[in-house]
């Protein structure tokens, strides 16, 4: 079946538009739709999609609460959530990233970007344009107290790796920056994620800001 997708949005026309575009792809199948977060949780448990396209603001249960419920469900460990929003700076989206969402996409992005986003997230990668996501995280992390308590879990090298991840660098770029081979960089990144209990790069960026390893405005 390829990549399976659940579309969650309270606007019927938006769901239908996304459904038509995604179902037209040879490697993507839409297995369900939901008009609010509560229905999304039920549908995710029923259909076990690879990716959930989750609107942020909906009636009954918003996208943030639904994301937490889906990603925290013991039977949905492999499900990825991609947030959809009309705003590139949205406190709900920040909360969703903290909860483990794999990234976010603006609703007015080109439809080709939507298709690519689904493929990226389904492959287990975080979807974020570094400049936008770092601005999002910096905006809201700056309002929170620094919590450096998790830093002791990481070695000095792993702390360097986390800082580079938070700057939006890929494994290849991290390897070049630290003068190590790419496989070693990938291993370091995996260990950082495991030690911090984060799902992907999006959550790692949040953790880096909250631990005070990166500060708003830092390049």
From TrEMBL:
InterPro entries per UniProt: CheY-like_superfamily (IPR011006), NreC/VraR/RcsB-like_REC (IPR058245), Sig_transdc_resp-reg_C-effctor (IPR016032), Sig_transdc_resp-reg_receiver (IPR001789), Tscrpt_reg_LuxR_C (IPR000792), WalR-like (IPR039420)
PROSITE patterns cross-referenced by the UniProt entry: HTH_LUXR_2 (PS50043), RESPONSE_REGULATORY (PS50110)
A GO term for molecular function: DNA binding
Pfam families assigned: GerE (PF00196), Response_reg (PF00072)
Keyword vocabulary terms for this entry: DNA-binding, Phosphoprotein, Transcription, Transcription regulation
Domain Response regulatory: 4-122
Coiled-coil regions, chain positions: none
Domain HTH luxR-type, residue spans: 147-212
Alphabetical list of SMART domains matching this protein: HTH_LUXR (SM00421), REC (SM00448)
4-aspartylphosphate found at: 55
Any one GO biological process: phosphorelay signal transduction system
Protein name: DNA-binding response regulator, NarL/FixJ family, contains REC and HTH domains
Species whose genome carries this gene: Lentzea albida
Lineage, uppermost ranks: Bacteria, Bacillati, Actinomycetota, Actinomycetes, Pseudonocardiales
